[in-house]
From TrEMBL:
Classification lineage: Eukaryota, Viridiplantae, Streptophyta, Embryophyta, Tracheophyta
Residue stretches making up the Exostosin GT47 domain: 1-273
Species of origin: Gossypium barbadense
Name used for this protein in its record: Exostosin GT47 domain-containing protein
Alphabetical UniProt keywords: Glycosyltransferase, Golgi apparatus, Signal-anchor, Transferase, Transmembrane
GO terms for MF: glycosyltransferase activity
Localization (cell): Golgi apparatus membrane
Length: 427
């Protein structure tokens, strides 16, 4: 339903224009996930790929495409990014090749789960709560602060019998042996209890912590259901939240969640209940408050009748993120290229003039530059000079040890941080 939600909200968006020349970004109302789902089982790769191929052929014929060759276009998918990156044409291989099409690589895709690809951005799974007013949000949040929570932790899910060394098997075993500290909702049971939003909410509202291990993929809708219930999420892989929802969740994950290494759990180095009982009451209260504060950010509201005074919801934050992303990509090569080296605030060390504005005669270079004051020039020059050690490759055979890290050092530091984020067991 994510595509439907976004399409409906986009049609009501307050800053729409029919003139692509003045548009900051272009929304492509292609229901990528829903379309692919029709052909995932029992169809050959040609059928799975055909709609995406046709879409790209249609888009690249449009004059709007040639402005930025699709880098200002974005679409939405209710399926994970991996489903659109099939690497071969074997029928047995999963998904489509849509995101491997050359032109598709320029598109930004908002998806429930991203991967290591920079043009896929994770947005929250839709929950069952779509408030139509700010009052409804506040009325939902307030009881979560005083809710009686008799269980230390809970888990709603099924074991993955086909997966060797499944984290879920360990979690279920820990839950069943926790002496009533844990409540388990078995999604393998008859009756499909896990499909009932009320039963899920009742479980999470009665729990202090909610366990969120990976399942068929790294992320789960249950993460957002637990946040909605004021239940502190417990993650076992950084890719389940910390490296996914960067536009939505705090960088300091310990403010709103607990992390337990899946490897440590499997090796018996940690027991879930022993880890969680060490969290003090003050820490629990602080984390729960942070979780409750996140609720407006991870829901998709019904804007037909309000929500204007509530913090931006998941849709608003997604559009804001897309606009900032396109803004960075629009003609600002240095700003989007050398992120490990140059300051985020580009105005501290440079001047930007829009190529489009220049071509349209909206700006003259000399008129733009003479408006920069002497103090601003001095400040920018000092910042430029300060950057020199960061953009040179020093000869370390004879010194430079006391100088700020050079380009080589910053590159290695960046690589290590990137690998650390991608390495599932390391945090």
């Amino acid at each position: 339903m994510l595509e439907v939600i976004f399409h409906d909200r986009m049609k009501k968006y307050k800053c729409l224009t029919n003139d692509s020349l003045v548009a900051s970004a272009i929304f492509v109302p292609y229901y990528a996930g829903l379309d692919l789902r029709r052909y995932l089982w029992g169809f050959n790769t040609s059928m799975r790929d055909s709609s995406g191929f046709d879409l790209i052929n249609w888009l690249k014929q449009k004059p709007q495409w040639k402005t930025m060759w699709g880098k200002d276009h974005f679409l939405v998918s209710s399926r994970i990014a991996r489903d659109f990156r099939r690497k071969s044409d074997r029928k047995s291989d999963w998904g489509s090749n849509f995101r491997f099409l050359p032109e598709s690589k320029n598109l930004s895709m908002l998806t429930i789960e991203s991967g290591p690809w920079e043009n896929d951005i994770a947005v929250p799974y839709p929950t069952s709560f779509h408030p139509s007013s700010d009052y409804q949000v506040l009325q939902w949040q307030n009881p979560m602060r005083t809710q009686n929570r008799p269980y230390l932790f809970s888990f709603a899910g099924a074991s993955r019998t086909r997966q060797k060394n499944s984290t879920r098997k360990e979690i279920i075993r820990h839950c069943q042996s926790s002496n009533k500290l844990c409540k388990l909702l078995d999604c393998n049971s008859v009756g499909h209890e896990c499909d009932d939003p009320l039963k899920l909410m009742n479980l999470f509202r009665s729990s202090i912590f909610c366990l969120q291990p990976p399942g068929d993929s790294l992320t789960r809708r249950s993460t957002f259901d637990s946040i909605l219930a004021g239940c502190i999420p417990v993650f076992f892989h950084p890719g389940s939240a910390y490296t996914q929802y960067l536009w939505y969740l705090p960088k300091n994950y310990s403010n709103y969640s607990v992390f337990i290494s899946a490897n440590d759990l499997k090796l018996g180095k940690v027991r879930i209940e022993e880890k969680l009982v060490t969290v003090s009451k003050d820490e629990v209260a602080s984390m729960r408050e942070e979780v409750i504060r996140l609720i407006p950010r991870i829901i998709y509201g019904d804007r037909r009748s309000g929500l204007e005074s509530v913090e931006d919801d998941a849709f608003d934050l997604a559009i804001e993120g897309v606009l900032k992303r396109v803004d960075r990509l629009r003609g600002r090569s240095a700003y989007t290229q050398y992120l490990w080296y140059l300051p985020k605030n580009y105005s501290n060390y440079s001047v930007f003039i829009s190529a489009n504005d220049l071509k349209l005669g909206k700006v003259r270079i000399e008129e733009k530059l003479v408006t920069v004051s002497k103090d601003e020039v001095a400040s920018m020059r000092e910042e430029v000079i300060r950057l020199i050690p960061r953009i040179i490759y020093g000869d370390r055979r004879s010194g430079l040890e006391s100088v700020e890290d050079d380009a080589f050092d910053l590159a290695i530091e960046g690589v290590l941080k990137r690998v650390d984020r991608l390495r599932g067991s390391d945090l």
